[in-house]
Fold each of these.
Amino acid sequence: MKSLFGKLADGTKVHSWALDNGGTRLKVLSYGGIVQSLEIPDRDGRYANVSLGFDTIEDYVEGSPYFGALIGRYGNRVAEGRFTLDGESHEVNVNDGANSLHGGAQGFDTRVWDVEPFTEGSDVGLYLYCTSADGEMGYPGTLRTKVTYTLTRQGDWRVDYEATTDKATVVNLTSHVYWNLAGEDSGTIYDHELEIAASRYTPVDSGLIPTGELAEVTGTPFDFRRAKTVGEDLRGAHRQLLYAKGFDHNWVLDKGVTREPEHVATLRDPSSGRTMRIATTEPGLQFYSGNFLDGTLVGSGGTIYRQGDALCLETQHYPDSPNHPSFPSTVLRPGQAYRTTTVHSFQA
Ligand code: BGC
């Protein structure tokens, strides 16, 4: 189940692990902890890879928009790459216009993780380890991270994130799978039905930084409390959709931070019947409708990825939380354990 996937320019080997359990087949790379493919059956038992990706390590290194990757140390944006913690100001790597995105230019998506397979009862999975040095990309503290990917007996894909630090820091870890439940080479996700259990979202400015307001979704394109297709309101002339060229926003999950993962979203492709339910301990969900895919990348199925060919549902704390004291805190201190869990369940 372990094979050589390729080598980085400096000769570092990148391995691929294949896991198969409960009807779900997963391929994971040590580079970025990337989910290279995730295959699930449709209502007739036909498998498809429902996650955008590439066939070669070179493609991932050269220009992947975070396909399938683990994101850290801070998922989503930090305004102008600056924040103050305990009275001390920090500057982190700016890689998205004026802002920092997904941990900076060399985020966790570009790290080679130590990977260890495990079997526990009827579960199979991988432990992924990464240590980020004090000051890496500007973030304070040595951050020791462990991510566990588990395929359960039911075929659920469960992701457990754990981290510790030796200095006060901020952490926001997530996974950046681009989903297309009809198959990664099947065109747009505009007909997918999406439900998000959130009455509010965080409106953004033109740089996609939250204004600080928690706005009601009622009467806006952002109301997904009852399932509707992604395409239904995508062209609604709402200023927020103009800023992001579509949906690229954080939903304020009604359940808030929870100890155990609770249901927050359902995605369904009516054509294949494939359905994914997401449960999480996290208070936010970034729904990104693949707006910046622009026809310049050829994916693992040999087709060109264009705008709207996939969507991301990134469970996390709200963007730019380090600069918004009213948002749930992303501060991690020595002696504390960062722990979050997200479970993806599949049916057809
Ligand atoms: C962000 C998008 C960004 C994308 C990277 C998403 O998580 O919300 O704004 O373009 O990642 O391709």
Amino acid sequence: GTLPGWDRVEQLVREAYERYRGHDDGVVADYIPVLAEADPAWFGLCVAESGGQVHGAGDEDVEFSVQSISKAFVYALVCEAFGHQDVLDRVGVNGTGLPFNSVMAIELHQGHPMNPMVNAGALATTAMVPGATPAEQWEHVRTGLSRFAGRQLELDGVVYRSESETNTRNKAIARLLQSYGRIEADPLQVVDVYTRQCALRVTARDLAVMGATLADGGVNPITGERVVSAHVCRDTLAVLAATGMYERSGEWLFEIGLPAKSGVAGGIVAVAPGKGAIGTFSPPLDPAGNSVRGQRATAYLSRTLGLNVFASS
Ligand code: GLN
């Protein structure tokens, strides 16, 4: 592979774990009530190479809800179904510079959702998922994300219900998009499918394999299954580079140099095209909603494994 040898990657993953496990900056999300019950000490990381080798450390097998990381993979499924131009026109690819659940960003752009990694754009994307009914759309999402992970992913019913009872803002965003003619389906049903996709249970290892599938041009390196086309991976990674880490996307790209996506339960996936991916999990977040230990561990691994996409050597 293009990464250092097996022993060296194993060693660096263990080092990243030891180096940052004691760091306790950041705050566990509580706007979805059940997320506040997460243990702030949880810390897992995993590197999946495009050849299929997997290296983990710490709580790599602890399950948590995928949350906004689902946006990247649902986007890929929708790009696969609709193609480059349609999705570009309807969802966009430019950053908002505002928090992920900003209503102001929608108003500032005459109802345009701007990009698929903020909630407005993610809702517009989920509205496009193939299926005659919301139940079929949900099945398409769950099956698609499971193919990225190479195993059957399940809904966390507790997280789903907790978010469903409190997601008034997402319902407002969906209504607002409807008012601008950006969502044709029933907005509350779109929010329901979106809330389910966010409540899928994954591990840091799953995130690494899902990311490595994008790194590998759409073929899952463990199962060998083609999930999406290479074009779709390229488009998805471009969007992640521009917008995957919310309003911190520029700083992230400057410091770490990898397309990535975070979620408020504490997951991050970072993708090194052609090489593999890093999945991390640790619940305490920075103010933008990105896991603090996850960012540090990913930065360390990007540097020591030589993954920065802008580096010439
Ligand atoms: N389900 C969460 C929400 O819509 C996801 C947000 C996130 O992970 N940033 O608020």
